[in-house]
Amino acid sequence: MSQNTVTRAQLSEAVYQEVGLSRNESADLVETVLDEISDALSRGEMVKISSFGSFQVRQKGERVGRNPKTGEEVPILPRRVLVFRASHVLKHRINEVQEGGAPTPARALS
What we know:
HU Protein, Chain A; three-stranded antiparallel sheet; 4 helices; 40% helix; alpha+beta
């Protein structure tokens, strides 16, 4: 599996190349979109991006965990967690057969 990471700078550069805005405008656009998504999630709203997926904040209740080293039981406090669910379009794109008919690595293991 690849260890590459897509950065804000790379997203901004892609917007610059594809849309034709200036580099500063592209960076501002990416920042604005990410801020809007973050703000909506912090308010507890679901964010759906068509053909990509949805982000949702879920509340996890208090539970008892166990320290694997000592075996001691410890309470895990309630918290909010971010959940991403990929759309069927994205899942299909990830699992597509590569050019030339060779299966993707994920398919080769199945």
